Amino acid sequence: MDVLARGGPIERVVRRAIIVLMLAGFVLPIALIVVTAFKTRVDALEGSPFALARPTLENYGHLFGEYDFGHFARNSFIASVASTAIALALGALAAYGLARFRFRGSGALAFWVLSLRMTPAIATIIPLFVMLRAARLIDSLPGLVIVYTVANLPLVVWMMKGFFEDLPIDMEESALIDGNSRFGAFLDIALPLAAPGLSATAILTFIFTWNEFLFALILTGRNAQTLPVAVTLFVRETGIDWGYMTAAASLMMLPMVIATLFVRRGLARGLTMGAVK
Amino acid sequence: MSHPMTDAGDASDIGRRDRVVSGLPGTRWLRRQIDTRPAWFFLSPAIVVLLLLSIFPFIYSFWLSFHQWNLSDRTAGWTFVGFGNYVRILTGDPYFWSAARVTLAFLLVTITLEFLLGLGIATVVSQESRALGAIQTIVVLPMMITPVVVGLIWRFMYNPDHGIINYVLGKVGIAGPAWLGDARTGFWAVVVADVWEWTPFMALILLAAMQSLPREPLEAAVVDGASRWQAYRSIVLPLLRPAIGVALLLRGIDAFKTFDLIYVLTQGGPGTSTQVLSLYTYKWGFKFFELGYAAALAYLMVLAVDLAATFGLRALERRT
After folding, report:
1. Residue of A119, A187, A210 with shortest CB distance to B3
2. For residue range B55-81, what is the model confidence (pLDDT) as tens digits?
3. Would you call B282 and A172 a contact, using CB atoms and an 8 Å cutoff?
4. Would the ipTM clear 0.85, i.e. be above it?
C-alpha cells in the first residue's frame, strides 16, 4: 500500500488529522474512566468530565477494602493462568500432530476443532453447568479452569498449528536421524523454535480468559467469582457508584493494555485463527 | 539432543520405529508417513478432553432440548416433550421472533458500520509509514479491554445526568435523551458502543492484509499511469477480498453471539428492543431455570451459526 502513498503536503496534513481524530475517539473514553477513578464522589458526578480538581485515591482504597477487589483479582488471575497453561500444553501437542502428519481425516479433525470455536458459548454452557453441578464444581476455581481450558483449546490448536507449519522441517528430520524420538524432536527442536508463536498464543489466551464473562457469570458465586462478574455487581446495588466502578475498570484494563503491547504482532493472526498473517 | 522424557513410555517406542527410515534422502518424508500412530500420541490428549467436555455435553443438551426440566423445582425431573420445545419456540413464542429480528438487525448494522469504518481506517493508516506500530497498538485497545468494562465505559458516558455525552450536548444547548433508557435510542446506543469496540478488529485485519499485499501489481499500475483511486479500486480491493471475507465471517459470527455488552448496557431493554438471542436464551436457562427450553433455543442458535459458517466458508473458498 505504501506504493500509493504519494500525495502532496496538504493531503499528508489531512491524513494525519484524520488519524489523530480517530485515535482520540478510541482513547478518550478510556482516558475518561482512568481520570474519573481519581475523583471524589461529588466531582465524579458534577463539573467538567476531564477536570481533576481534587485527585484522590479513596476509590481505590474502598475497592480493596469493602469490595475485596483482591479476592476477585486473585480468582481471575488463577483461572486465566492455569487454564492458559493447560490449554497450551494440550494444544501445542495436538497442533504439532496436525501440522506434521497427514492422515485420513486430519483435515476434518482440524475443521472440527475450528467449528468448536464458532459454537455460541450460551449453547455450551447449559450442559456444562449441569455437569459441573453434578460434580459439585459450581463456584469453584477448578471447575472454572476446566471450562476455560476447553474453551481455549481450539484457539491454541489453530494458532500453534500455523506456527509449526511455518517452521522448516529439516532440523526435526536431522534430530530424528540422530536418534531422537518424535517427542524428543518436538520438545527439543520444534517447541523452542516456535517459542515466539507460543508466547503470542499464551498472551492471547490469557487476554480472552481474563475478559470472559458469560461462563463466569453462570458458573460462579462469590467464592470463585472473577473480576468481570464482580464489577457488574456494583451495578445491581443501589445505583452505580462511578468512583469505585471506574477504579475497578482501570485496574482491569491495565494488564490487558500491557499484554496488548507484547502481542501486537501476533494479533491479526490469532484473531483470524491463522487465516490472515 | 535427547530428552529425559524420551527414555520411557510410548514416545520412545514410536521414535525407534521411525528411525528405520533414517536413510531416506527425501525432504518431506516426515509428512508422508504411512505410520500415523505417532500422530495420535500428539493428538489424543486434546481430543479426549474435547470429546469429554465438548462433544458429550453437546449430545447431552441435544437430548435435553426434547425435555421439559425446571431446575428450580427440586422434585421435578425430566419430562419428555418430543419436539414440543421447538414447536413452541417457532410457533408460539413472539419473544423468540422479536429476539431473532433484533439479533439480525444488530448483526447487519454493526458489521456494516464496522467494516466501512475499519476499511477507511486501514486505508488511511496504511499510507502512513511512521509510528505505524504505535497507532496500531492504540487502535486495538477497545477490543482488547474487557467487554464488560467497555459496557461500563459507555454506560457512564450515556448517563443522562452526569454522562459526558449529555454534558457536551448541554454546553451547546441541547438536552440529550436518556440514551439507554429511551426506546427510540436504546438500540442505536448499543450499536455505537459495539462499533467502538469492534471496528478495531476490522481495521486490524484489513491493515495486516494491506501490508502483506504484493508490491508488483501496484507498482506496475502506478507506472502505467493509473490514478491512486483506480489502483485502489481495481487492484487493492480485489486482492483484499479473502481477508475481507474472513473478517466479515468471523465478526458476523461473534456479533451473532453478543452478550456481555448488552447485558451490561441494557439487559435487553428498553422493552425488548435490545434483547438478542443469546440474552433471551440466558434468561430462560438461568433466570427461569427452564433448561430444556433454553437448550432448544441454544440449539437453534448453533444451527444458525453452523449454516452461516458453512455457507460463508464455502463462499470464501470459491473466491480464493
Report:
1. A187
2. 888 899 999 999 999 988 878 789 999
3. no
4. yes
